[in-house]
Amino acid sequence: MKTINDYMLLPYKIEIIPDTDEGGYVVSFPELPGCISTGETIEDALSNAMDAKKEWLTASIESDVSIPLPDSLDNYSGQFKLRIPKSLHKSLSEHSKLEGISMNQYCLYLLSKNDALFENK
After folding, report:
1. Looking at the domain 77-119, which fold is it?
2. Alpha carbon of 75 to those of 11, 78, 109, 118: distances in Å?
3. pLDDT category, 119, cuts 50, 70, 90?
4. Which of 5, 29, 64, 84 fits a disulfide with 88 by CB distance 3.0 to 4.6 angstroms?
5. Against a cut of 0.90, is the pTM above it?
6. 45, exposed or middle or buried, with CB in 10 Å at 0-12, 13-18, 19+?
7. CB atoms < 10 A from the CB of 53, how many?
8. CATH of domain 4-62
9. d(Cα 9, Cα 46) in Å, to the nearest integer?
10. Contact criterion met (CB below 8 Å) for 100 and 94
């Protein structure tokens, strides 16, 4: 069984969002549902978030609640199979040839470009 210190050292994702209504910042740990804190500055918000994380983990351990582990790139192979219409396959193949790269590289470029747009929303 992991201890509080073991969990505190795990690389949980942290989200920092400016609080446009109240001012300051809101910090949350998406992998730890309900673990949220605030602070007037980013430094205060992060410090408060670490306290909130410790309290969240302590309460979960004391209540015998399952604590999720952080998502890891080890959970992903970097490969997936995708079925597409033949017309799209043809179009992607032609565009990749125009760019002078493999269709795999071209598709990676398109996915990365669109994923970056999604992240910036």
Report:
1. Arc Repressor Mutant (1.10.1220)
2. 14, 9, 22, 22
3. low
4. 84
5. no
6. buried
7. 21
8. 3.30.160.250
9. 15
10. no
